[in-house]
Amino acid sequence: MTNISNLANEVVEFSRKIFGDEFIPLHRPIFNGNEREYLIECIDSNFVSSVGEKVTEFENNIADFTGTKYAIATVNGTSALHAAIELAGVERGDEVITQALTFIATCNAISYVGAVPVFVDVDMETLGMSPKSIREFLEEGCEMRNGYCYNKFTGKRISACIPMHTFGFPCKVKEISEICFEWNIALIEDAAESLGSFIDKRHTGTFSSMATLSFNGNKLITTGGGGMIITDDEILAKKAKHLTTTAKKAHPYEFFHDIKGYNYRLPNLNAALGCAQLEQIEKLLEEKRKLAKAWSKFFSNRNINFIEERSGTKANYWLNTICLDSKTERNKFLEITNEKGVMTRPIWTLMSKLPMFKDCQKDSLKNSYFLEDRIVNIPSSVPESVR
Ligand SMILES: *Cc1c(COP(=O)(O)O)cnc(C)c1O
User: N or C: which end of the chain has fewer CB within 10 A?
Assistant: First the structure.
């Protein structure tokens, strides 16, 4: 057994060596490129808000980077998820399969359309949705009727499935995609954390009809706040743009909106920031990989489980992650490191434990409970010295 106080103190020491003496956050943004220039361009052009060239440019650049045909910018990742879920045909009263071990945004967005999440377990290696769990859930508890999947227990239709690539580690979405196809369930990847993560050289988020990204301040690259829907489907892309921009029919002067739409568009100012950030993404990914290597060596010398990308995949190492031996050790580790100004944090409380979702159906969630007690994220910013 490791001495957890020693480990915590060594992590503090190592963090100070890499990141310096001040307070060390979990993940800080870097503005080393053309951020200022592009922002000033926006201000000088007067196009700071919902109309402007930077939005289109940012969308095109994200589409290029992820290898998708279309990208639709939104005001944040949650709104991208909300719109995608609605566009996937999820209706009030439906159920959506997701993982209990995720950030609240996934489940919030499911509830915004009046649907209810159903929780399946995650894999130990990927921390993302387990294909085995979803298959068991469907085979034991669901049936096909009129071409749709119904939950035999609740009688509700299961219309979508949302796996999440936790901390940038690609989940087994290829397998999940095959299962969803068999059961006629729409697949949406929550790729908010996995920009720059690949499976067999294919970008995460390209294994489903639609996927969503986030550019919140703590993500790999940031627009301040922002999100994106990516898709290869032209019709969905057009609908997504329409739905997220108040559903206004194009007209030189008339205001006519043909469906209930949302004002979810990303302001030009934020897109400008995104354009500058995206120019630096390869360098960022490279530096984060180096940092992960250093952490990996540090922890393997101490016999601690540092989570690594599985073979055949490339993780962005957005947040570096360790798995400790118990909740007691985890708490002690979190206390010591945070007290010393080195930010570390636990993984999220399981969605199935939150008041809004406590009555939702779930499987054993065996791995989810195990990981919930033991996972810790450690400082993951690109070090000052290379910024
Ligand atoms: C960050 C994140 C989102 C989106 O969050 P926003 O703050 O709305 O951009 C969605 N899902 C997951 C898993 C996330 O980590």
Answer: N
